[in-house]
Amino acid sequence: MAYEQNGRLPDHQNWPRPELLYSEALRELHATIESDWDSVKRSACQTAAGRALWKHVVNDQLAELFAGETYLTNLYEKIKNDRMSNAREVSGVILAVRTLWFESKLEAAVESFGGGAQVVLLGAGMDTRAYRLSCLKESDVYEIDFPEVLEMKETLLQTAINNSINPQSKSLTRIAADMREEDWFKKLQSSGFIPEKNTVWILEGIIYYLPHSQAMGVLKTIADNCSLTKTVLLADFMNKQSTTLSSSNSFHFYSDWPDHLLPTLGFSEVNLSQIGDPDADYGLLHDPLNLFNKLRGVPRSFQNHPDDGTPCCRLYLVQASGSPKTISS
After folding, report:
1. Residue 71: alpha-carbon gap to chain centroid
2. CA 138 to CA 190: how far, in whole Å?
3. Helix (H/G/I), strand (E/B), else coil: 107
4. What is the CATH number of the domain that holds 188?
5. Are residues 98 and 72 in the same domain?
6. How many C-beta neighbours within 10 Å does residue 309 have?
7. Residue 110: is its pLDDT beyond 50?
8. For the purposes of burial, counting CB atoms within 10 Å of the CB of 23, is it exposed (0-12), middle (13-18) or buried (19 or more)?
9. How many domains does the chain have?
10. Could you read off the pLDDT of 184-242 as tens digits, one per residue?
11. Which of 12, 233, 280, 283 is at 20 to 30 A from 270, Cα to Cα?
């Protein structure tokens, strides 16, 4: 179904349904995920479900495979109920907007490097960009995540098509590493990463799961690369109030002012957007009274909305960059 350019979404009857064409082997693999993985690891499948069910705007043909029936069915029911009740915010819309924002910024960054950049996805989960983005055809892509996540990702691919699907990127390297441990960057280097080569770093849906000291360590490691080469960081940050949204207490790191924080680490230029801003809307948040547009009108220093006292839960989309030239000057 083509997305209507006037910003209207499909109604609940016409919303693209998940196909759920799973073999018994795939069902068993997803059952293992549901029984053995913790909430942080399972969030990779939940994100894939969001991309799959917003396929009228996000072109991710592998998303249903990685999501699994449980997450697809649960989210589809939420979307159907939201559309039936004319909810101002439809479930999964944040994932759709976030995906579109990251991909547009990634494509622009890679093009600014002449196409031959390194791309590092930290906490890659079930990300499929190396398989579907033509802008990565000259780029070396590195995916870092827990070993069981990366192993399951490869097993799902091979089980589904009986052979490995070829990525569009120049190369794709998966690195089993825990970002909470200090050796993740050494593992990245030993896998072929060249610190002196132009690099785009992606921290999507991951940094707020880390304890504060470890999140700051990851950001500092990336920022240090600015002294070696042209470096771009694409990341999403929660503010303090947003960390209370997790019923399992999974969210830890937050920054109310990431555009102030990142320059102190070594980035020379930082651009911040909120969901619903002109570059983070994509016609999906046109209702001026939806949650995201209401928040945009409230100063970021406010922790609670002045109209009703509800917490101001914000998600910031941030692009930061730096290079040896800007640092030395």
Report:
1. 17
2. 21
3. helix
4. 3.40.50.150
5. no
6. 7
7. yes
8. exposed
9. 2
10. 999 999 999 999 999 999 999 999 999 999 999 999 999 999 999 999 999 999 999 99
11. 283
